[in-house]
Structures are given as C-alpha cells and as structure tokens.
Amino acid sequence: MASISKRQIPELLNGPHQAVLSVGRENKGPVAVPMSYTYNGDRFFFVTSPASLHGRLMSKAGRATLTIQFEEVGTATVHQWYVMAEGRAVFTDADPAPHVRAILTKDRGSQNWDRWRAAQPNTIGKVAELVPERISGYEFRESLDDSTRSSDRT
C-alpha cells in the first residue's frame, strides 16, 4: 500500500464520495456514521443534527475523524484508496442551505437540490466543520490476473 501525496488529496476528495464520520465515546467503541461532505482544501464541511448521538458526542469532544474511501474493481484490476482526516470538529452558525446544495451537487448532480429541498424544507440540520490536524491517504492497486497477483507469489 502506497501513501498518497498531500497534493493529490484535494483532487481525490472533490469527487462524489461518501465519508464515515467517527467520534469517540467513553467506555465504548466509537460511533461511526456515513456522511456526505465538501472539502475546500483546508477543511471539511458536513450537515447533520447536533441532537443526534454523533452530533452530541462531537460537540462534547470537539474532535472527530472522517474517512473517505474509493474502490473500483475492474475485470483485471482492483484500485482502492482512502483518506483519513482527524482534527477539531465543531458546529457553526453558517447557513446550511449552501452547504447542502454543494454536497448534493458534488455527489448527485444539481437537479437533486430542488427535489431534496421540496421534500425536506425544514430539516436541514446544522453545518459542522472538521479542521484536519492530521490528514493522510493510502492507495492500493492489484492485478486480478492470477499470474501476477502479489498474494500468490512465493
């Protein structure tokens, strides 16, 4: 598995990928939930409810980790990468509508904003931001051809 360079990370993160938001809790494993996000090259933004379990834990801890994964399996190769960002996470007073619009446009195309907004006019949530103190990425590529699979070599 090879490291992804810091300059490659922003390009990878701006695709239509889902993240997993993980927040620690005392005497139990972390809470991990799927989360749509945007990334501006400096910080991550996502919209969720402060009243949710992960929202309450994040508010209390002031920290979280986002893991973004991509996997593409072709007929002859497997390509996987993931990026982990850990740092300060807080809810903001920013207007959530532009963030939700940006997330939906990034992940599903601009036509989904109007449908989503009409279906959920008052349930947007609050904007949270994660400012990474550590960010790292890793990439894995392997041939599915039996003659070249690294796991079959002796």
**Distance N to C terminus:** 19 Å
CATH class, named Mainly Beta
DSSP strand tally: 8
Query: What do the pLDDT scores average to?
Result: 85
- The quaternary state of the protein chains shown equals single chain
- Fraction of residues in β-strands: 35-45%
Relevant CATH superfamily: Electron Transport, Fmn-binding Protein, Chain A
Describe the structure.
The protein has 154 residues and is α+β, with helices and mostly antiparallel strands. The chain has one domain: Pnp Oxidase, Chain A (Roll). Strands 1, 2, 3, 4, 5, 6, 7 and 8 form an 8-stranded antiparallel beta sheet that branches. Strand 4 and strand 5 form a beta hairpin.
Q: Helices and strands in order, then pairings?
A:
Elements: E1 2-3, H1 9-13, E2 19-25, E3 28-35, E4 38-39, E5 44-48, H2 53-61, E6 63-73, E7 77-91, H3 96-108, H4 111-119, E8 126-143
Antiparallel strand pairs: 1-8, 2-3, 2-6, 4-5, 5-8, 6-7, 7-8
